[in-house]
Amino acid sequence: MSLRSILRVTEIASRVLLAAMKNFLSALFALTLAATVSVRSFAADEKKAADEVAVIKTSEGTMVLEFWPDVAPKHVENFKTLAKKGFYDGTCFHRVIKNFMIQGGDPLTKDDSQQARWGTGDPGYKIKAEFNDKKHVRGVLSAARSQDPDSAGSQFFIVHGNATFLDHQYTAYGKLIKGDDVLEKIATTETAPGDRPVKKMLVESVKIIPRSEAK
Questions:
Q1: Position 35 in a domain
Q2: What span, in angstroms and rounded, lies between the C-alpha atoms of 125 and 152?
Q3: Domain annotation covers residue 195
Q4: 91: domain range?
Q5: CA 20 to 30 Å from 108, out of 3, 18, 86, 214?
Protein backbone atom coordinates (compact mmCIF):
# COMPACT_ATOMS: atom_id res chain seq x y z
CA MET A 1 0.00 0.00 0.00
CA SER A 2 1.31 3.39 -0.95
CA LEU A 3 1.97 6.14 1.55
CA ARG A 4 -0.85 8.13 0.00
CA SER A 5 -3.30 5.25 0.55
CA ILE A 6 -2.15 4.83 4.14
CA LEU A 7 -2.68 8.51 4.82
CA ARG A 8 -6.14 8.31 3.24
CA VAL A 9 -7.14 5.34 5.41
CA THR A 10 -5.79 7.11 8.50
CA GLU A 11 -7.80 10.23 7.67
CA ILE A 12 -11.00 8.22 7.27
CA ALA A 13 -10.40 6.36 10.53
CA SER A 14 -9.80 9.65 12.33
CA ARG A 15 -13.06 11.07 11.01
CA VAL A 16 -14.98 7.97 12.11
CA LEU A 17 -13.39 8.11 15.57
CA LEU A 18 -14.10 11.82 15.89
CA ALA A 19 -17.75 11.32 14.92
CA ALA A 20 -18.07 8.50 17.43
CA MET A 21 -16.58 10.66 20.17
CA LYS A 22 -18.97 13.51 19.33
CA ASN A 23 -21.95 11.14 19.52
CA PHE A 24 -20.72 9.75 22.84
CA LEU A 25 -20.22 13.22 24.31
CA SER A 26 -23.65 14.31 23.08
CA ALA A 27 -25.29 11.28 24.69
CA LEU A 28 -23.36 11.84 27.92
CA PHE A 29 -24.44 15.48 28.01
CA ALA A 30 -28.08 14.50 27.44
CA LEU A 31 -27.96 11.97 30.28
CA THR A 32 -26.30 14.46 32.62
CA LEU A 33 -28.89 17.11 31.76
CA ALA A 34 -31.76 14.68 32.32
CA ALA A 35 -30.34 13.61 35.67
CA THR A 36 -29.91 17.24 36.73
CA VAL A 37 -33.48 18.11 35.73
CA SER A 38 -34.76 15.02 37.56
CA VAL A 39 -32.90 15.92 40.77
CA ARG A 40 -34.11 19.52 40.60
CA SER A 41 -37.68 18.35 39.96
CA PHE A 42 -37.53 15.97 42.91
CA ALA A 43 -36.14 18.70 45.15
CA ALA A 44 -38.87 21.10 43.99
CA ASP A 45 -41.59 18.51 44.65
CA GLU A 46 -40.18 17.79 48.11
CA LYS A 47 -40.02 21.50 48.91
CA LYS A 48 -43.62 21.95 47.77
CA ALA A 49 -44.71 18.98 49.88
CA ALA A 50 -42.98 20.43 52.93
CA ASP A 51 -44.55 23.86 52.33
CA GLU A 52 -48.10 22.45 52.33
CA VAL A 53 -50.05 21.93 55.53
CA ALA A 54 -53.26 20.19 56.55
CA VAL A 55 -56.05 22.28 58.04
CA ILE A 56 -58.35 20.04 60.07
CA LYS A 57 -61.60 21.77 60.94
CA THR A 58 -63.31 19.98 63.82
CA SER A 59 -66.37 20.52 65.96
CA GLU A 60 -64.00 21.73 68.68
CA GLY A 61 -61.95 24.14 66.55
CA THR A 62 -59.25 24.06 63.89
CA MET A 63 -55.87 22.34 63.91
CA VAL A 64 -53.03 22.88 61.44
CA LEU A 65 -50.41 20.20 60.83
CA GLU A 66 -47.15 20.30 58.90
CA PHE A 67 -45.76 17.29 57.02
CA TRP A 68 -42.43 15.47 57.02
CA PRO A 69 -42.01 14.20 53.44
CA ASP A 70 -38.27 13.78 54.01
CA VAL A 71 -38.83 10.84 56.37
CA ALA A 72 -42.21 9.44 55.26
CA PRO A 73 -43.01 10.52 51.68
CA LYS A 74 -45.56 7.77 50.99
CA HIS A 75 -47.57 8.49 54.12
CA VAL A 76 -47.55 12.22 53.47
CA GLU A 77 -48.69 11.75 49.88
CA ASN A 78 -51.37 9.28 50.96
CA PHE A 79 -52.81 11.67 53.55
CA LYS A 80 -52.82 14.56 51.08
CA THR A 81 -54.42 12.51 48.31
CA LEU A 82 -57.22 11.33 50.59
CA ALA A 83 -57.78 14.81 52.01
CA LYS A 84 -58.02 16.38 48.56
CA LYS A 85 -60.69 13.82 47.65
CA GLY A 86 -62.74 14.79 50.71
CA PHE A 87 -62.18 11.32 52.18
CA TYR A 88 -61.84 12.61 55.76
CA ASP A 89 -64.72 15.10 55.64
CA GLY A 90 -67.52 13.98 57.95
CA THR A 91 -65.46 11.43 59.87
CA CYS A 92 -64.70 11.76 63.57
CA PHE A 93 -62.06 11.04 66.19
CA HIS A 94 -63.46 7.69 67.29
CA ARG A 95 -60.79 6.74 69.85
CA VAL A 96 -59.52 9.15 72.48
CA ILE A 97 -57.13 8.40 75.34
CA LYS A 98 -56.11 11.31 77.52
CA ASN A 99 -52.33 11.76 77.84
CA PHE A 100 -51.84 9.37 74.93
CA MET A 101 -53.50 10.23 71.62
CA ILE A 102 -56.62 10.99 69.56
CA GLN A 103 -57.34 8.70 66.61
CA GLY A 104 -59.36 9.37 63.46
CA GLY A 105 -59.46 8.81 59.72
CA ASP A 106 -61.85 5.86 59.64
CA PRO A 107 -64.45 6.30 56.85
CA LEU A 108 -66.87 4.06 58.74
CA THR A 109 -67.28 6.79 61.38
CA LYS A 110 -69.40 8.75 58.90
CA ASP A 111 -72.18 6.24 59.61
CA ASP A 112 -73.45 5.99 63.20
CA SER A 113 -75.07 2.64 62.41
CA GLN A 114 -71.57 1.24 61.87
CA GLN A 115 -70.30 2.10 65.35
CA ALA A 116 -69.54 -1.55 66.15
CA ARG A 117 -67.03 -1.50 63.27
CA TRP A 118 -65.46 1.88 63.93
CA GLY A 119 -61.70 1.55 63.94
CA THR A 120 -61.62 -1.09 61.19
CA GLY A 121 -62.18 1.07 58.12
CA ASP A 122 -59.60 1.93 55.47
CA PRO A 123 -59.39 3.33 51.92
CA GLY A 124 -59.30 -0.14 50.38
CA TYR A 125 -55.52 -0.52 50.38
CA LYS A 126 -52.51 -0.58 52.70
CA ILE A 127 -49.15 1.20 52.55
CA LYS A 128 -45.77 0.03 53.72
CA ALA A 129 -44.31 1.36 56.95
CA GLU A 130 -41.78 4.18 56.86
CA PHE A 131 -40.43 3.99 60.39
CA ASN A 132 -38.04 6.83 61.14
CA ASP A 133 -36.24 8.67 63.94
CA LYS A 134 -38.97 11.22 64.67
CA LYS A 135 -40.12 11.07 68.28
CA HIS A 136 -43.75 10.46 69.22
CA VAL A 137 -44.17 13.51 71.41
CA ARG A 138 -47.15 15.82 71.87
CA GLY A 139 -48.65 16.99 68.60
CA VAL A 140 -46.96 14.43 66.33
CA LEU A 141 -49.07 12.99 63.51
CA SER A 142 -48.60 9.26 63.01
CA ALA A 143 -50.19 6.38 61.10
CA ALA A 144 -52.53 4.04 62.93
CA ARG A 145 -52.18 0.37 62.03
CA SER A 146 -52.97 -3.18 63.13
CA GLN A 147 -50.35 -5.71 64.28
CA ASP A 148 -48.96 -5.91 60.75
CA PRO A 149 -46.35 -3.12 60.38
CA ASP A 150 -47.44 -2.61 56.77
CA SER A 151 -51.16 -2.25 57.47
CA ALA A 152 -51.60 1.54 57.60
CA GLY A 153 -54.31 2.98 55.37
CA SER A 154 -56.25 6.15 56.13
CA GLN A 155 -56.38 6.14 59.91
CA PHE A 156 -54.07 8.41 61.86
CA PHE A 157 -53.51 9.64 65.36
CA ILE A 158 -52.19 12.81 66.96
CA VAL A 159 -50.14 12.34 70.11
CA HIS A 160 -51.46 14.07 73.24
CA GLY A 161 -48.91 12.94 75.80
CA ASN A 162 -45.43 11.47 75.54
CA ALA A 163 -45.63 8.26 73.50
CA THR A 164 -42.01 7.62 72.62
CA PHE A 165 -42.54 3.90 73.23
CA LEU A 166 -44.10 3.95 69.75
CA ASP A 167 -40.88 5.20 68.13
CA HIS A 168 -39.64 3.00 65.24
CA GLN A 169 -42.88 0.99 65.44
CA TYR A 170 -45.33 3.50 63.98
CA THR A 171 -44.75 5.93 61.11
CA ALA A 172 -44.58 9.54 62.25
CA TYR A 173 -45.11 11.89 59.31
CA GLY A 174 -46.09 15.33 60.60
CA LYS A 175 -46.74 17.56 63.58
CA LEU A 176 -49.32 19.99 64.92
CA ILE A 177 -48.21 23.61 64.47
CA LYS A 178 -51.47 25.39 65.37
CA GLY A 179 -54.45 24.42 67.47
CA ASP A 180 -52.89 22.78 70.51
CA ASP A 181 -55.89 23.98 72.50
CA VAL A 182 -58.15 21.97 70.16
CA LEU A 183 -56.01 18.87 70.65
CA GLU A 184 -56.40 19.42 74.39
CA LYS A 185 -60.20 19.71 74.15
CA ILE A 186 -60.56 16.53 72.15
CA ALA A 187 -58.04 14.54 74.19
CA THR A 188 -59.69 15.44 77.50
CA THR A 189 -63.30 14.97 76.44
CA GLU A 190 -65.42 12.50 78.39
CA THR A 191 -65.20 8.96 77.02
CA ALA A 192 -67.25 5.78 77.28
CA PRO A 193 -65.93 2.19 77.38
CA GLY A 194 -63.74 1.47 74.38
CA ASP A 195 -62.23 4.97 74.56
CA ARG A 196 -65.18 6.31 72.52
CA PRO A 197 -65.96 9.99 73.07
CA VAL A 198 -69.38 10.54 74.61
CA LYS A 199 -69.77 13.68 72.51
CA LYS A 200 -68.97 13.13 68.84
CA MET A 201 -65.63 14.74 67.94
CA LEU A 202 -66.48 15.58 64.34
CA VAL A 203 -63.99 16.24 61.56
CA GLU A 204 -65.88 18.69 59.39
CA SER A 205 -63.17 18.96 56.74
CA VAL A 206 -59.48 18.46 55.99
CA LYS A 207 -57.92 20.85 53.49
CA ILE A 208 -54.39 20.86 52.05
CA ILE A 209 -53.14 24.41 51.52
CA PRO A 210 -49.82 26.31 51.24
CA ARG A 211 -48.29 27.04 54.63
CA SER A 212 -48.37 30.76 53.87
CA GLU A 213 -52.18 30.66 53.69
CA ALA A 214 -52.69 28.93 57.05
CA LYS A 215 -54.17 31.25 59.67
A1: no
A2: 8
A3: yes
A4: 52-213
A5: 214
Residues in the chain: 215
pTM check: above 0.70: yes
Q: How far apart are CA 177 and CA 197, in angstroms?
A: 24
Under 8 Å between Cβ of 141 and 174: yes
Asked if residue 103 lies in contact with residue 88, where contact means CB atoms within 8 angstroms, the answer is: no
Cβ pair 145, 156 in contact under 8 A: no
Give CA–CA dist 100/78, Å, rounded.
24
pLDDT tens-digit profile of 143-184? 999 999 999 999 999 999 999 999 999 999 999 999 999 999
Burial of 57 (0-12, 13-18, 19+ CB in 10 A): middle
Q: Which residues contact 93 (CB under 8 A, 6 or more apart)?
A: 58, 102, 103, 104, 186, 197, 201, 203
| CATH number of the domain bearing residue 197 | 2.40.100.10
The answer to whether residue 47 is domain-embedded is no
Phi, psi of 97 (to 5 degrees): -130, 110
